Amino acid sequence: MRTRVLPLITALIVCLAGAVLARPGVGFVAAAEAQTPAIPAVAPEHAAAPFASAQPHLSGERRRPIIDLAAAASAGVSSHVLDLAMGAVNCAVQSGDLASPSSLTLIDYSRPSTEPRLWVFDLRTGELRFRELVAHGKGTGENLAEHFSDDLNSHQSSLGLFVTRDTYVGANGYSLRLDGLEAGFNSRAMERAIVMHGAPYVTETIAARQGRLGRSWGCPALREAVARDVIDFVRGGGVVFSYYPDQKWLEQSRFLHCTPGDLDDLGEVPSLVTRQ
Fold it and tell me: Are 51 and 121 in contact (CB under 8 A)?
């Protein structure tokens, strides 16, 4: 009797299990997924990513830097100067003189020293990170900048495209070396010790009291309260673009006059500033 009952019980259990597994959405695979945490999908190694999140300095990479134009305009940035800066940056990247930078520091020396005339943009997100006062060289002018040079002991500011290098602590405290990329205009910056640093003579109080900021020996000096933050954000491969409507520089700067072949991947210069 027992030998007959056991097969019947076994058959009944099998039938019941089959009925359950036949229900929609239920089965061995579904049961396993319900008990095992889902493994996040892994994107292909070379999958395309949104441009704003692209990482700088990847070998062979050519990014189109982005800028939040609305924020730039609200902060007083000239659209003409910004176009020149972005065109110069992309020209330098395409020519191999510059790796795709993660930041752009724009200095507009056509403005008086009593006004904020230095802006720092995050080129990965387009965000405006800093808007600051900046001093020019003693030999460059009083409140208004007028004279620029790359000569030793000129105590004048220099124009054009620079790339940021390493930091150090020197006579002016925490400082950032700038490497000029334009022969005849700023290429002796390292030799002249043209660096970004903080200075006690760069304050709104001094500007109001004497009608201009104090002046450096050619360095773009910042407020001491913000200098370290700016330096740490732009150091190690960021780009600095120093502007003034100097006719010689505007006509001879090779980064302001790229040939069509230099920009074959990026199109016309004005389109390099991508609106957000």
Answer: no
- 33 Cβ contact list (under 8 Å, min separation 6): none
Determine the pLDDT at residue 146.
97
What residue type is assigned to position 216 of the chain?
S
Distances (CA, A) of 194 to 113, 161, 178, 213: 18, 13, 6, 18
Closest CA relative to residue 127, chosen from 37, 4, 233, 208: 233
- Where helices occur in 96-153 by DSSP H, the ranges are none
Domains of the chain: 2-35 (no CATH), 62-272 (2.40.440.10)
- Tens of pLDDT, residue by residue over 66-103, are 798 999 999 999 999 999 999 999 999 999 999 999 99
DSSP letter (8 states) at residue 217: S
Find where tokens 């176009």 sit.
83
